[in-house]
Amino acid sequence: GININGLVFKPLASAIPTLTRDEMKLGVSLIDIGSTTTSIAVFNDGAVRHSAVIPVGSSSITNDIAVMLRVSIEEAEEIKIKYASAKSSLSSKKLEFEIPANEDNQLISENELSQYVEARMEEIFQLALTEIKRAGINNNLTYGVVLTGGGSQLRNILALASDLLDMPVRIGKPVNYLIGNKDFADDPVHSTILGLLLWPLF
């Protein structure tokens, strides 16, 4: 009983609650890391100068963990949330956890797990950086990069992004137009849906 009223490019919706007008005016790149795709939108002078969609997202990390540890997708997602770090050097080599459903009670360290996670995140950021450079305005991106989407909640992602992108990076939480109980929807994973709600007003 629901009709589609129109289509909105994901990073345009995500930009509304996460980016400031100054950022869009003086230059910023939004990287929205979703489950199956990563969307990029480069803003300058208040308009989009380049956009792209990369067919790799946070579910690729989950799949990598599932294959590596031979666990279910659901178990791999739980392990990713609890133990994975985007930058392996910031994870513990001493903290070990038991692999679920492993008859040998095999243990793996947080650091070893995170090395695989970091490799996939490097791929995502390198592909995103290639798209950002295609805009041809790298020197005009005063505010660097804003990360949003569920994938941006990975632990230590700012440290890895700062190293690889070589520009200022922050996490874009949907707070610019959020009034009331912010704890309900102020995580980056909600950026797109809140942007869609605000879309008719812009």
Structural description of this entry:
This protein is of the alpha/beta class. The chain is 40% helix and 17% strand. The chain contains 7 helices and 7 strands, in the order ααβββααββαβαβα. It has helices spanning 10-18, 21-26, 58-69, 73-83, 110-134, 157-165, 191-198; strands spanning 28-33, 38-44, 47-54, 96-98, 107-109, 145-148, 169-171. The strands form 2 sheets. The protein has a 5-stranded mixed beta sheet, with helices on both faces. Strands 4-5 form a two-stranded antiparallel ribbon. The longest helix is centred in the middle third of the chain and has 25 residues, at 110-134.
Number of helices: 7
Distance between the termini: 26 Å
Task: Name the beta content range.
Answer: 15-25%
The strand line-up of the biggest sheet is 3-2-1-6-7
Low-confidence stretches: none
Query: Main beta sheet, described?
Result: 5 strands, mixed
**Residue share in helices?**
25-40%
Q: What average pLDDT do the residues reach?
A: 91
| Rg, alpha carbons | 18 Å
